[in-house]
From TrEMBL:
Cofactor: NAD(+)
Name of the molecule in the record: UDP-glucuronate decarboxylase
Organism for this UniProt entry: Dictyobacter vulcani
Keyword vocabulary terms for this entry: Decarboxylase, Glycoprotein, Golgi apparatus, Lyase, Membrane, NAD, Signal-anchor, Transmembrane, Transmembrane helix
Keyword Transferase assigned: no
Pathway: Nucleotide-sugar biosynthesis; UDP-alpha-D-xylose biosynthesis; UDP-alpha-D-xylose from UDP-alpha-D-glucuronate: step 1/1
Gene3D superfamilies found in the cross-reference section: NAD(P)-binding Rossmann-like Domain (3.40.50.720)
GO biological process, one term: UDP-D-xylose biosynthetic process
GO molecular function: NAD+ binding; UDP-glucuronate decarboxylase activity
Amino acid sequence: MKILVTGGAGFIGSNLCARLLDEGHTVFCVDNLITGSTENIQAFIDHPHFKFLKHDVTEPFESDAEVIFHLASPASPVGYLEHPIETIMVNSTGTHRMLELARKNNARFLISSTSEIYGDPLVHPQREDYWGNVNPIGPRACYDESKRLGETLVMEYYRQFQTNVRIVRIFNTYGPNSAIEDGRMIPNFITQALKNTPITIYGDGNKTRSITYVSDLVDGLMRAMFSPNTTGEVFNLGSSEEHTVLEYAQMIIRLCNSSSEILFETSRVDDPERRRANTTKAQQILGWQRKVDMEEGLRQTIEWFGKRIAQYSTVS
């Protein structure tokens, strides 16, 4: 099929592009590279069924795509706090443009939303029918609230035009093609551990997170897009295995055989205390299950980060 992936040079987008090419699809990757990187798509940049366009999806462009994965958006605190207006616009105007393209092309459409739409949740674990607890004017609102608005747009296109849409709320994901300076927990901890520098924890380390390896997440995106009975549905994709931030830091120090110490700093504003997905719906409707063991996934990610850091060191 002819498939458009916005944000396709990002962490998850590039892994999705690789999977789509492996399955024989023609992939049109559009990314303005404010947080994505051409390094992430270098392995298949010359693939005969792959095309890359450096472009901001808030501006018009043409595509005859039959399937649209709309992943474009800064997704880490470093990314969206550095680009707050761009984040708001890509999740509102950009989403609107992609929905119009889906309506015009009669295409399947998937938006990658986020667990951040739940804010600092008062319900645990979080189910798709939970409305969230979000600060609408805080520093993270540029991401949280624009993703919520993006979901609203998607559902209005479903109600008003019967557009073939679905929403996937992505929980913490890790793996190859993460940015070294991503700013999120796993990339930060691995980079610091490999360099034997202090590992920074914001808060006392007792906040919890659940993490999913990127290949499992991509499998969930594929199932959400192509499985029957998914039109108009919302799916959580994440892990039900919950650990404290301190436990992740200690595990990564061990796996890296690192001498890093742990440094505790002030909590980030509006950083959730607990985060774990209820994925019952994805399991029942999509048949989705995580396959990659956490320690195995972390080992693969550490190996990838080690090579990338060595590559940067050589260049510099």
